[in-house]
Amino acid sequence: MILVFYLASLFFIGISLYLVVLTIAAFRFRKRADANARPLRMAVVIPAHNEEMQIGNTIKAVHRSIYPEDCCRVMVIADNCEDETAAAAKSAGAKVVERSDLSLRGKGQALDWFFREQHQVLASFDAIAIIDADTEMDENFLKEISATLSIPQVSVAQGYYGVSNSAESWRTALMTAALAVFHHVRPAGRNRLGGSAGLKGNGMAFRAEILKRYGWPAYSVVEDLEFGAIMLLDRIRVQYNPDAIVRAEMAATGKQAESQRRRWEGGRLKVFRKLAPKLFRKWVKERQFCYFDGVMDLLIPPLSAIVLALGILLAASLWISQFIALLLSFAFLGIAFYVASGLVLKRAPFAVWLYLMAAPFFVLWKVPLYIGMLKGKGGSEWVRTQRKSEVGKSTE
């Protein structure tokens, strides 16, 4: 057990140190964008499953963009829908394609089908942006993402994916803090050091030739993470643009959050097992930072798991090793610096800072989830998260 303690301590101290390095690099990050380039012909693709209550507002937000109307077209994939998603999308002005295949359910499956079935239609566009059906798109998103994809060396871009309901509950406030580091500090730092920003599932954009070449070859429940790693293996890095902003509703209740977190975190573990060894071998062979960073990105546990582990290890170290206790204390301070930097860089409202006091309760809530994952109950199947409009404003 002592050996396990020392190995675990070394691991989490190393993880904390790496996050501090990324944080420092994030402060030195500068976006890559050509503001003088002509607007790219852009298709905005929205995969949607039973989203009749959300899809209209999302499409209208795209149409309000500060972007030439003749350079943008909205296309909705009504995927295995049992409601009026297709009709609502058509009414809002989108081109709609419907897919019905219950044997291949999931966002990745729907996107892959779409990019192969609509190959001729997509050939008329320079770039394709992908957003979720419940997204609030910033009016400058398309302009910013086009400017980044206009850089000759950039073929894939990721915008900042934030929270639209940050003040709704302590959970959504903590998610705002978590995404400030996961969707800003880490991609900014990774880009600054020569790595790929990775894909975040919403607010992604690709040069058309990338999707003609790959389709969407990622079918896991974290298909964005998987596809980003697949492209990195082929030396394609994702460029982050923090001014290309999309926001979406996050789970506010325990019932909503549990299935979502189980899916995200269980799926991430499976992608690590599948692709981390390949990235590691690539790093050993070519000694390029981007591959080492790719392994680290898959290896780093969720923020709450890091805090929980550091707390347990620090408590144990008080009886085992004062030196390790000191190092773990510095690791804790490093994580605090990492989180605070994300809130500062994204100018988080004061209420989010206050809600950080609820972080211990959030970490404790996650304990049964992590135990379930260790028992093999991680997310392996895509499950749609209910929206606030569907479950009401009920509290736990």
Highlighted features:
396 residues; alpha/beta; Spore Coat Polysaccharide Biosynthesis Protein SpsA, Chain A; 2 domains; eight-stranded mixed β-sheet; 16 helices; 8 strands; 55% helix; disordered C terminus
Explain what the structure shows.
By secondary structure, the protein is of the alpha/beta class. The protein folds into 2 domains: 132 residues, no CATH class; 214 residues, Spore Coat Polysaccharide Biosynthesis Protein SpsA, Chain A (Alpha-Beta Complex), CATH 3.90.550. It contains 16 helices and 8 strands. α1 runs parallel beside α13, α7 crosses α13 and α9 runs parallel beside α10. The longest helix is centred in the C-terminal third of the chain and has 33 residues. The chain starts with a helix and ends in a 5-residue tail after the last helix.
Chart the SSEs and their pairings.
Layout: H1 2-27, E1 42-48, H2 55-63, E2 72-79, H3 85-91, E3 95-99, H4 107-117, H5 119-122, E4 127-130, E5 135-137, H6 141-149, E6 156-163, H7 170-192, E7 204-207, H8 208-214, H9 223-233, E8 239-248, H10 254-286, H11 289-299, H12 303-320, H13 322-345, H14 350-355, H15 359-374, H16 388-391
Parallel strand pairs: 1-2, 1-4, 2-3, 6-8
Antiparallel strand pairs: 4-7, 5-8, 6-7
Report strand %. Answer: 5-15%
Mean pLDDT value: 89
Class from secondary-structure proportions: alpha/beta
Task: Detail the poorly predicted runs.
Answer: 392-396
Q: Categorize the overall geometry.
A: globular
Tally of DSSP helical segments: 16
What count of domains describes the coordinates?
A: 2
CATH architecture grouping of the largest domain: Alpha-Beta Complex
Number of strands: 8
Amino- and carboxy-terminal Cα gap: 39 Å
Q: What's the alpha carbon Rg, rounded to whole Å?
A: 21 Å
Widest sheet, order of strands: 3-2-1-4-7-6-8-5
Sequence of secondary-structure elements: HEHEHEHHEEHEHEHHEHHHHHHH
| The CATH top-level class label of the largest domain | Alpha Beta
Major sheet, described briefly? 8 strands, mixed
Residue share in helix: 55-70%
CATH topology of the largest domain: Spore Coat Polysaccharide Biosynthesis Protein SpsA, Chain A
